[in-house]
Amino acid sequence: MLTNMKTCKSCLIVDRVEGVVIGKDGACNYCSGQKHFGVMEDPAFRDAYDKKDVFYTELLDILKNSKGRDYDALVALSGGKDSTWLLKFVKEHSGGRVLAVTVDNGFESGIALSNIERVKKALGIDHLFIEEYTGVLLKAYRYLLTHNKDRNTVDILCRICTIVWQSALLKTAVKYGIPNVYIGYSPDQIEYYFFRITEKRLKENWFPREFFPEDMFSEEEKKLFWLGESEGGRPAVYFPFHVVPSYKSSRIRAEIAKAGLLPKGRSSQTLTNCRLNWLMMYRDYRNLGYNAHLPSFSHKIRRGIESRAEWNMSLFLAKIFIGNALFPRKLMKDALKKLGLDFSDLVKKR
Ligand SMILES: [Zn+2]
């Protein structure tokens, strides 16, 4: 059994998360300022939040002045509120020659998919639905969900999935001669990047060989990953919400509803989230005893963006319902079926 887990009195993070230490006063090393979240571990980024307006001016300038061959901008469209708002924003601030791209992972919610249809029609924007990565992703999900059960699933599965779909976006940008890619990470999604992907990272080959057995992917499949220097171009990748002033999810929802893009009832995160999420949370509750998203929730609580009291309650309920596969059981079972797995495959044998 999983016992002796200490919880930070302020941000709810637990000491079972890698690198977290809870002091005698009950506060974690993040809360006491000894540790920083995501890219903020690097002192170079530490004051980036305070320079948001400088980056924002740069962003508007880039949007206005970047010209490409077939399109000027590529926007990742997931069918959620943030990517919808971002698409409208990029269209309005650039010359309007925008390509929206959705990378099919096979687990998008039905609502997200129908949102995409609505939004592209309403904005009159060209849209590509990329399906050639679905096979690689399915293979990766199945492997990652059933291995390394001592590791937080977000840390491994979301990381790899992100590498895959961002590879698809970058290769699409190269194919159509598009200089810039825009991704709707929320302001506090700073696990790996702030505002943009670094030049250094873009020069690397992104195939994550340390995560998989040598022969799991064919040479053809490996070529679907961003190959860095050997690609025929190097588009820039931006995360505009890191620098857009006064981001509020309620404001984003209201604005896209007002613009006739997504009515409020269709933009809830629970509805538009990737369906693998439930399985990831289930897996981590069973094996680690805490929510897979706890590190990022806690970060938001520390930043005052999310309420500690609300999350305390949500996490309590999630642990009971998701941790015991009670709800949403049907969605969980559907996802497992698609993966050819069973609940027991996700849980460490004891
Ligand atoms: Zn804390």
Could you estimate the helical fraction of the residues in percent? 40-55%
The portion of residues forming beta strands comes to 5-15%
Total number of helices: 14
What series of H and E elements makes up the topology? HHEHEHEHHEHHEHHHHHH
CATH topology of the largest domain: Rossmann fold
Distance N to C terminus: 9 Å
Query: What strand order characterises the main sheet?
Result: 3-2-1-4-5
CATH class of the largest domain: Alpha Beta
**What compounds sit in this structure?**
zinc ion
Number of strands: 5
| Average pLDDT metric | 94
Poorly predicted regions are none
**Oligomeric state, counting identical vs distinct chains:** single chain
Briefly note the structural class of the backbone: alpha/beta
How large, in whole angstroms, is the Cα Rg?
20 Å
The CATH H-level superfamily of the largest domain is HUPs
Provide keyphrases for this structure:
binds zinc ion; 2 domains; five-stranded parallel β-sheet; 350 residues; alpha/beta
